[in-house]
Each structure stands twice: as structure tokens, then as C-alpha cells.
Amino acid sequence: MGFCYDKWVQVGKIGEERLLRLIQRVVRGRGHLLVGIGDDGLVLKDGRTVLTTDAYAQGVHFDLSYLSYYDVGRRCACAALSDLVAMGAEPVVMLVALALPRRTSTRAVQELYQGLEQVCAELNCEIGGGDIIAFDQLVLGLSALGKTRRPLLRSGAEPGDLVYVTGYTGLAETGRLLLVHKLSIRFKACGGELAIERHRHPLPRLQVLQRVRRGISALIDTSDGLGSDVRHLSQLSGVRVVIQAEKIPVHPVTRELCQVLDIDINKFVLSSGEDYELLFTSKRRLGSTVAGVPVNCIGWVEKGAGVEIENQGRRSKLRIRGYDHLK
Question: A GO BP term, please (predicted)?
Fold first, then answer.
């Protein structure tokens, strides 16, 4: 089939993006899909039905040493349904494939589903069933279906568009680090509780989408990190994106934490993932808040390729990437 990889190459050596290109060479379209592999979800030929699926594993996507089962349910549901919102769709139904150790208590399972149900209730979505198997650790596979009048893709950015992001970049990872390092009390006064809540409960920005969707040309959620996700928009739209470093919204608690832990804040905000904020392009000039959520213009789109970052008037190629599961 003409693969450029030897069959014995380890996936950890090529990374998620190149492995995805290999998979795309294997699968064949049969006329059922309007949008297939490569976006936040697929779109059926009707142009209105969006489907997505994600897997979440203990020790990779969540840690039960500082999160409750209820937190895990909320967090995973938010992440799964965010992919629908990132396609311009409103969630309708979610399926849950649950793998769990036999020693897991029924109370833990109940709390997990209470967390899943809480998020579904907030987004007017239903849990429609799923599957349960025994496994040596907790793993959730969440599939979700949504409906849209018109799907919003990663590939629609055009020269002249502005680049926007909702919320605060790196806030969810800030919350995770506060929990890991047991610093929540110390940072309470400067926004620690907000950061922890964004890690535990990163509710998709559906209300923002509903207000601004008519002007959106390209859309993605910030699940992998701003550096990676803006690169996806650039590649699939065939344009150059310029990000202004000083315009990236950073919460004071993130600045304070990076100083205390001696973390490079520029690298942190560009590489930290799982914020599940909306990153989109539009020709419209928006206000600083939409539906009570901060919305910041952080750059623009122009002819060319790649991503550049402008810092104090100087531009350079953006080389910082976000999270890659295989590396």
C-alpha cells in the first residue's frame, strides 16, 4: 500500500499526527461521510449529524489520588462533549463504554455516573447506554452524537480573519498542578479555586458558540494545547496564523504558580492542554466577553503557511507543541 513506515516502527517514534496519516491511508470512504478523519468529529452525509469518540484512562487523563469518581465523570463528559461543540454541534446523546476493576465499589460507579449525568444535564444531553467490562484499571470510552445546522470545521480560516480564544490559556493545567503539589490553599486568594474547577469541570463553551457561530470561519477546542491546536487550524486551512504573545489570556494564578514552580510561562501557556476552550477565526470584531466568558483576540490569519508568534514586535516560527499521547 506504499506506507512510508516499516511495519516494525514503534508508534512512539512517529507520534500521534504521523500515525493518524498512516491510518488515513488504510481506511476508505464509502460515501456515508461529509467529514471523516482529521477533525474533532465526523459529519454524516446529511451535514447535520456529528459523531465523536474518546478514551480516558486512569493515570493518563485523570488521577484518582486527588479526583473523586464524581470529578472523573464530570471531567470526562466535558472533554467528550467539547468535541461536538468544537464542530458547531449541540450535544444530543452520549454512550459510555466502561472498563473497571472487579474490586470497584457500586458507590464509586454511582458517583461516576452522577458526574457524567451532571454535565449531560447542563448541556441538555442524554446518556443512552453503553457497555461494561472488567479490566485492571478504570478506562472510559465515551461516544457522543450532536446536531448542527452547519458544521464548523478546522479548515475554514481565511486571510484577513482574526483569531480568538475563550477563557484563560493554561488554567486547567494550573489547577492540576495545584492539586498535585497540594497548593490549593496557598493560591486561593489569587484564583486557585477557579483553576481547580477548570481542571475538574471544563464545561464546553456551548453558550459562547450559540452567540457567535454565525461569524466563525474555523473552529477547534484547545484540548492538546494552544501551540498544537492553532497549528491544526493553519495546516487544514492552508494559511499562516500569527499569534501575539502578549495577547494570550493568562490568569494571575497561572503567572504566580509558574513563578513559584520555576516554569517558563510562555512555554506553559502554549503547551498546556485540556482547557477545552474555543479557538476560532472570524472576520467579526467581538467584545471582551460573550455569555459571561472572556473572549480575546490573540492574532490574525494571512497568506502563507505555518504558525508564527509575535513578541515585542519580532516574529518567529512557533515551535512549541502541546501534548502528544504517543511521545
Answer: thiamine diphosphate biosynthetic process
List where CATH 3.30.1330.10 sits in the chain: 40-147
Residue 277 pLDDT: 98
Q: Known binder of ligand: residue 54? A: yes
113 in a known ligand binding site = yes
**Residue 8: pLDDT band with limits 50, 70, 90:** confident
Q: Is 83 one of the annotated binding-site residues?
A: yes
The response to whether 323 counts as a known ligand-binding position is yes
Q: State residue 159's pLDDT score.
A: 98
d(CA 272, CA 173): 6
Whether 49 has a binding-site annotation, put simply, is: no
- Superfamily name and number for 40-147: PurM-like, N-terminal domain (3.30.1330.10)
Query: Is the CB of residue 165 less than 8 Å from the CB of residue 298?
Result: yes
Whole-prediction pTM value?
Answer: 0.93
Q: Which three cell numbers stand for residue 119?
A: 454535565
Give the chain's radius of gyration (CA, Å).
20
Fold of 162-317: Phosphoribosyl-aminoimidazole Synthetase; Chain A, domain 2 (3.90.650)
Q: What is the mean pLDDT of the chain?
A: 94
